[in-house]
Specification:
The complex is a heterodimer of chains A (about 110) and B (about 110). Helix content of chain A is about 0%, strand content about 50%. With about 110 residues, chain A is mainly β. In chain A, the strands form 2 sheets. In chain A, strands 2, 4, 5, 6, 9, 10 and 11 form a 7-stranded mixed β-sheet that branches. In chain A, strand 5 and strand 6 form a beta hairpin. Chain B is mainly β. Chain B starts with a strand and ends with a strand. The chains are: A mainly beta (about 110), B mainly beta (about 110).
Chain lengths: ~110, ~110
């Protein structure tokens, strides 16, 4: 079955530590995205990539970094520079500007 | 800039109708509609492209007025399964072809 997987589902980290969230897709989509969602809020774009080895900052990129070395993978690193990292993180992929397919999300809690 | 959704929340009885609106201050290329259940990933409902089209999916339909930069989602004869938060996402006509989500409309359908 084609789809997007994110791991882990829940992640706990101590303040000041970097953490990497995994996102893999087997839909053969060129474009991939990372969003952050806070309780009761909409989705805010962190980074997106339209092609391998290229990515652009979204609206809230500060404190985050990404890489796109393979078409299938788009990992997100939450660095210690991110002041308030506790949130629900969603990865998505799409074929061009068509509908986005979302992964199940990773809920990150910084203690 | 984030599109504006209204209302923020609506409560219905099963079988009643609802309309959710989405408006943007920018010229739009397309509008996407998604539904998210609590704790889950958003699920794609439909996409409307520039051209003022209207789409339908079962008892859920949407319209897109590109001149007014507005879209509306229509839910008729609502079912319990329609409960969730509905997000519109807009892609502006311009170089930055990224999807920007509204803050969502929480829909609750009661028996």
């Amino acid at each position: 079955d084609g789809g997007i997987t994110q791991s882990p589902k829940y992640l706990f980290r101590k303040e000041g530590q970097n953490v990497t969230l995994s996102c893999e897709q087997n839909l053969n989509h060129d474009a991939m995205y990372w969003y952050r969602q806070d309780p009761g809020q909409g989705l805010r774009l962190i980074y997106y990539s339209q092609i391998v080895n290229d990515f652009q900052k979204g609206d809230i990129a500060e404190g985050y970094s990404v890489s796109r070395e393979k078409k299938e993978s788009f990992p997100l690193t939450v660095t210690s520079a991110q002041k308030n990292p506790t949130a629900f993180y969603l990865c998505a992929s799409s074929r061009g500007l068509h509908e986005q397919f979302f992964g199940p999300g990773t809920r990150l809690t910084v203690l | 800039q984030q599109p504006v959704q209204s209302p923020q929340a609506v409560i219905l009885r099963e079988g009643e109708d609802a309309v959710i609106n989405c408006s943007s201050s920018k010229a739009l290329y397309s509008v996407h509609w998604y539904r998210q259940k609590h704790g889950e990933a958003p699920v794609f409902l439909m996409i409307l492209l520039k051209g003022g089209e209207q789409k339908g999916h079962d008892k859920i339909s949407a319209s897109f007025n590109e001149k007014k930069q507005q879209s509306s989602l229509y839910l008729t004869a609502s079912q319990l399964s329609y409960s969730g938060t509905y997000f519109c996402g807009t892609v502006s006509s311009g170089s930055a072809r990224q999807l920007t989500f509204g803050s969502g409309t929480q829909l609750t359908v009661l028996p």
